[in-house]
Specification:
This protein is an alpha/beta fold. The protein has 2 domains: 212 residues, Rossmann fold; 279 residues, Ribokinase (UDP-N-acetylmuramoyl-L-alanine:D-glutamate ligase), CATH 3.40.1190.20. The chain is 42% helix and 16% strand. It has 19 helices and 19 strands. The chain has a 10-stranded mixed sheet with strand order 8-19-18-17-16-15-14-9-10-11, sandwiched between helices. A 7-stranded parallel sheet has the order 3-2-1-4-5-6-7. It has a two-stranded antiparallel sheet with strand order 12-13. Strand 18 and strand 19 form a beta hairpin. Helix 3 runs parallel beside helix 4. The longest helix has 22 residues. The two termini are 22 Å apart. Bound molecules: ligand NPW, adenosine-5'-diphosphate and potassium ion. The site of adenosine-5'-diphosphate (ADP) has 19 residues, from helix 17 and helix 18.
Amino acid sequence: MYIVTAKEMYDIDHFAMTEIGLDGKLLMENAGRAVADRVTAIVKDTDKICVLAGSGNNGGDGFVIARTLLDKGYAVQVLQVVANDKILGDAYYHKRLFERCGGIISLFDGKCTSMITSNNVIIDAIIGIGSKGILREPLASLVHYINREAKKVISVDIPSGLPADEGKGEFISIQADYTFVIGAPKVSAFLNHTSPYYGKWEPVSIGLPSRAFKTNTSRFVWGIDDVRNSLPDRKPDDHKGEHGKGLVIGGSKEMPGALAMSLKASLRAGAGLITGATTEGVIRMLSANCIEATYKELSETNGFLDNRTDVSLEGYHAVAIGMGMGRRTCTGDLVRSLVHTAECPIVIDADGLYHIKEDLLDIENRRYPTVITPHPGEMAMLLGITVNELLLEPFRYSREFAIKNNSYVVLKGMITIITSPEGEQVVNMSGNPGLAKGGSGDVLTGIILAMIMQGQTIFQALCNACYIHGRSADELISEKHSYHDLLASDVIDGLAKVFRIIS
Ligand SMILES: NC(=O)C1=CN([C@@H]2O[C@H](COP(=O)(O)OP(=O)(O)OC[C@H]3O[C@@H](n4cnc5c(N)ncnc54)[C@H](OP(=O)(O)O)[C@@H]3O)[C@@H](O)[C@H]2O)[C@@H](O)CC1
Ligand SMILES: Nc1ncnc2c1ncn2[C@@H]1O[C@H](COP(=O)(O)OP(=O)(O)O)[C@@H](O)[C@H]1O
Ligand SMILES: [K+]
């Protein structure tokens, strides 16, 4: 499933019409019919439906929806929210078809009308991706009224007034219960501050060719089919060396468990051999608990790793660093020296990110892949901006950082955005609020480390790891756990089921 900006969607429409020859009226017919089909699945036969139609093509979709529902026998009427002379082109054509089929159109008189309250379903086709700036009057008041009074609101393509793109914090928008997005979801469906306005959303297909999407966008949602297509099988004659020897560096006297989570998760996710490199005290605590891992003792100052041991990375296929190591200066020296010398992929997480903040040039200059896995607080710290600024434009900030610093960025959150150094972006939607707990990120880092060593591309490895991590939490919630009680260690146990589902 592709994710588009408003401009990309217009380019895709344009491509479909000019390069392929699809007619705009036909696309509008397809859009309206596809939405009407979905609407019939969520309304009752006895529901009274009011379609609000605006001036652009979104309003045009509204006329097709109204005609299709009328033909199916629903009690439906249209409230046209703009003057007659504003309905032009393809939208006018479909308005005429609706009228000729016996459809009734009322004109919005600027007052908040009883049609909003006397119908139990409102279909919002006021404005789509053509929305510019903040909604003007009288539509702004109408939208406030709908949000207050309407019983069930179904938006067409996007809740009216909501920006399609990132970077816009001020708007007046319909609060939808459902949104049927046309062709592909828009970027705002994936942002913390705009996604709630969509209610439940799903895409409807209107016959736009996949070539049109491939040519015009490089952003998409990673799904189970993508995992199945890219995750290498384990062969009958495999030996452990073929699944990678990974090193996990982290832990301190204050946070020993973080390392344990990463080690266990990495082993459960298929790593061949995993070594935990940490302080003597942490090894003592973990070794009986995580017996499949091997351990390497590093030097320490008062229970925190320092840079006095000469850590050899020879023979390791990938390294993960940072979890539970704390923010002491002596530990930072260790991180920076390993980032500088590691001749293999390195995954930097948690406090490791804090230590590299001032040395991003070292990351940029690395000849081997670098992966950073920040949550929004860590990403904002690396960028020197606030979390609010970041979350307003997470796609842009991730992309700029990844390209500038020649690194893979896994920006974690309710949805996770994975960006390659070339700027390709994928969204992972698996996972749930049960993961909003200490340790979830350490588990993800362990899975990432394992995936990187399994023979996929680094980008595929990151996408697969995020999907599998979130899916484990989703499976656990659907079975025996709740958002409240789910623990990071449960997510490790849940991997067994996810791998069975995938294979
Ligand atoms: N082939 C295709 O293209 C297909 C497109 N499809 C559909 O078309 C939709 C995009 O259509 P679109 O480009 O016509 O824009 P749309 O969202 O209807 O709004 C434009 C109108 O809004 C108005 N307006 C804007 N800002 C405003 C404000 N702040 N406050 C008040 N009014 C404001 C603006 O008025 P103006 O400012 O010009 O006076 C203009 O008249 C898309 O979301 C999808 O549903 C599908 O049918 C599939 C095929
Ligand atoms: N509400 C949520 N929905 C989906 N995934 C979530 C949610 N909250 C957190 N996660 C996931 O849980 C993990 C948390 O990582 P992080 O914040 O680094 O945790 P920690 O540092 O405590 O280990 C990330 O993979 C994130 O995407
Ligand atoms: K709309």
